[in-house]
Amino acid sequence: MIDQPRLLADFPPLPGLIKQHCEDFVVEEIPLYPASGEGTHTYFLIEKRGLSTMQAVQDIARALNVRRRDIGYAGLKDARAVTRQWLSVEHVPPETVRRLELGGLRVLEATRHGNKLRLGHLAGNRFVVKVRETEAGRLGELRDALEHLCRVGVPNYFGQQRFGGRGDAWEVGRAMVRGDADLALDIMLGRPSAADRGAVLRARRLYEQGAYGAAARGWPGMFRDERRALKSLQRTGGDKRRALLAVAAPLRRFYVAAYQSHLFNCVVARRLPAGLGRLLGGDLACVHRSGSVFQVGDAALEQPRADAFEISPTGPLFGYRMSWPAGEPGRMEAQLLAAEGLERDSFRRRGLRVKGGRRALRFRPLEAKAEVGADGHGAYLELRFTLPSGCYATSLLRELFAGQSTRAKIAGSGREERS
Length: 419
Hints:
By secondary structure, the chain is α+β, with helices and mostly antiparallel strands. The protein has helices at about 55-65, 95-100, 140-150, 170-175, 180-190, 200-210, 210-220, 225-235, 240-245, 250-270, 300-305, 325-340, 395-400, 405-410; strands at about 15-20, 25-30, 40-50, 70-75, 80-90, 105-115, 120-130, 155, 285, 295, 310-315, 350, 350-355, 355-360, 360-365, 365-375, 380-390. The strands form four sheets. Strands 1, 2, 3, 4, 5, 6, 7, 16 and 17 form a nine-stranded mixed beta sheet that branches. The protein is globular and about 60 Å long.
């Protein structure tokens, strides 16, 4: 993982603990569109706590006797939190969904709509975050820092949870893009580290010993793709290329997306010192209101729009169909790709077709405020803010808080962001 410099380099971050209790981190989805009330799909709003999105989907699918892939969702939410999000299922009446009684979640609403809910069908998320063991006396400083971030924008880094529980998902993706199946599987299935525990640690050690069958039996039940790859290795006498293709396509896409995210973060870090709102000739700029992207000709002419936060420069989500900027931004991105030993067509090979795209280098928090409070667990600083879809609360929080908060805020399922 690269070092991710903070925008607020001159602001001494506050200490603090985040996610000490599920109720300390509350997230509510803002739907991209309302349900119509008609159609074969049932849209339902759930509130969950202590559950990842994928675990909730699995539990609901089992209770409704449908396949897990039949459950649609717009976004993935943390396990160590209270989250409210919309899901969908087809050919199951709303009244049946409303009767669901499952540990860790409850159904708040259910209605009908005409299509399945898809990843990305989301306008944004509202957050309420309680930070404990911090310095409430610096509330004024915190508010000033938060106001500054709302004015100039937050670095749009992908958060640590994007890179899996061990933080090395991007390395698997890089090996895949380079066509190195051996290395991809070695990282995915072996290389035990301090982050591994129990059965997973034992399974990784067995893989390192070449005991593929025993390793397959050792992985816990939820790790279906790891077991599938290991059984392929056992069946083919260690053919790692075939074993990698045995991994389900969504997981392979997750690893490559993690690598794309890593490279995007590299560009954010490189452009941060000059200002993420500063346009350069040749930039591909994003229009925040519509999401459209255009190439900047005269940077000085367009800069007032960036200053007003109407537009922002974008960075690369590398892929074979990604639009490339011109001028200095284009040279910077080409140099980064070359330093990785890759070409544009590296993202198009057998079992790998990644189109790519663009992503704004910064985002603007909305409705942001900070207050002090107390509850049965003690005193806290409370932050409330709304973020656009795809933006990470951790990227905002790391600008303001340091120390143990950085570790605590990413607690939960290490596999949540992979699907």
